[in-house]
Amino acid sequence: MTLFQIFLLVFLSPTFFCFLPIQGRVLTYTKQELWNTMSQISLPPSPPPEAVAPSSNNEHSVFDVRSFGAVGDGVSDDTQAFKMAWDAACLEDKPGKIVAPKGYIFMIKSIIFTGPCKLDLIFEIDGTVMPPDGPDSWPRNESKKQWLVFYRINGLAMQGGGVIDGRGQKWWDLPCKPHKGINGTTLPGPCDSPVAIRLFMSSNLTVRGLKIKNSPQFHFRFDGCQNVHIENLIIKAPAQSPNTDGIHIENSNNVQIYGSLISNGDDCVSIGAGCYNVDIRNITCGPSHGISIGSLGIRNSRACVSNITVSDSIIKHSDNGVRIKTWQGGTGSVSKVTFNNIYMDTVRNPIIIDQYYCLTKNCLNQTSAVLISDIAYTNIKGTYDVRSPAMQFACSDSVPCTNLTLSEVELFPAQGQILANPFCWKAYGTMQTLTIPPVFCLLEGSPEMMQIYDVDKC
Q: Where is the signal peptide (predicted)?
């Protein structure tokens, strides 16, 4: 008896017993036992690869921020002390280590740590670092879009056992932010909220072991960076906190994100335009909005994303699982993406491509679109929230999705036993193995023609 025949018998019969002959014996399975057998998941993810520490033949010169005047009482302004410690380490003739020691709470205002520095640096946070408490406490002459910025740095390791506390609650409560009230109503007014940590136009970066919580907006943002290694982070914010992405990367390449726990109010990891060679592994994600590529193509922009791998991870109690989202009117492409060995626990949209992404009800229909091709989903198992189908592939009319492949995908409803049919629109691809539920709505082959002016491959 084939897997598909078993599948049909299980879900078409209200009372089901399966008798399978094996070497002269008859094995009896109840419907629930067969359900449990078919929904087994893969083994737990393997440990992340060992991090490669920056090599140096010299010991680091230590720059304790207290030596530069930091008080660490949670009230005094320690901004200048951190800046002086950074500048001294940056100019040192041997590798430097800036230390915020354990047992202290350092309050820092918006600051930019600039390079290039003479040699590699370590920024070690063992105490607690936090910004002013909310928009009313923020200095009027300082940007409310960013807090800790690292600019043009080559060779930086951020590490330590301390905590970076973004104190985001008062920012989330601004009248302009989506509220928990009726229909998520908002009011006009200032809406800027700072990204907690932004690394901009920098390279050879390592971020490990830190705990960061309650950022007003994104927790980490990497813009124009290359050779980035992130591991063993704990990022936490309430599920209802708006735009608190855990890690966002944009125009960055050769990025590794390993072995981290992320629970927040938006994407655990979001991948923006201009990213390639990104490896995400051993992430525990949720509650959240899942792991997303996009949104891409906003305001008719061009976006190129390629060579992305997400593997050996868990996504739980989230609005989305693995998602690709693009706006109508964009150009460029998303290609060579692999989602492998991922367990979903009560996820509303475990697998989703949305080329009609829109934050309002008034987005205009447009012809051009970001091309999505060569996307593989393998060994994705678990349960989905029955309010939405387990799989949705909503692709562009004029620029369909091509070469989607699914293998060993088994997704069952978290409640009940009625499988929702997957949704497909202009989606071309194949099932290499029978999926649960089956994605019979995929179109075979490739589109006969796509208007050449709509397709702008990267």
A: 1-18
What local confidence, expressed as pLDDT, does residue 183 receive? 65
Strands 25-30, 128-130: pairing kind:
unpaired
Give me the helices (H) in 229-277, please: none
Q: Over 50: is that where the pLDDT of 338 sits?
A: yes
Q: Which amino acid is at 254?
A: N
Annotation marks residue 289 as catalytic:
yes
State residue 349's pLDDT score: 97
The widest CA-to-CA distance across the chain, in whole angstroms, is: 83
Q: Pairing mode, if any, of strands 234-236 and 121-125?
A: unpaired
Q: Residues 6 or more apart from 23 whose CB is under 8 A from it?
A: none
Banded pLDDT at 180 (limits 50, 70, 90): low
Check 60, 229, 248, 289 and give the catalytic one.
Answer: 289
The answer, yes or no, to whether residue 397 has pLDDT greater than 80, is yes
Contacts 24+ apart (CB under 8 A), 252-255: 252/222, 252/223, 252/224, 252/225, 252/226, 252/228, 252/278, 253/226, 253/277, 253/278, 254/226, 254/227, 254/228, 255/222, 255/225, 255/228, 255/230, 255/279
The pLDDT value recorded for residue 360 is: 82
Residue with tokens 């906190």: 241
Distance CA 237, CA 245 (A): 9
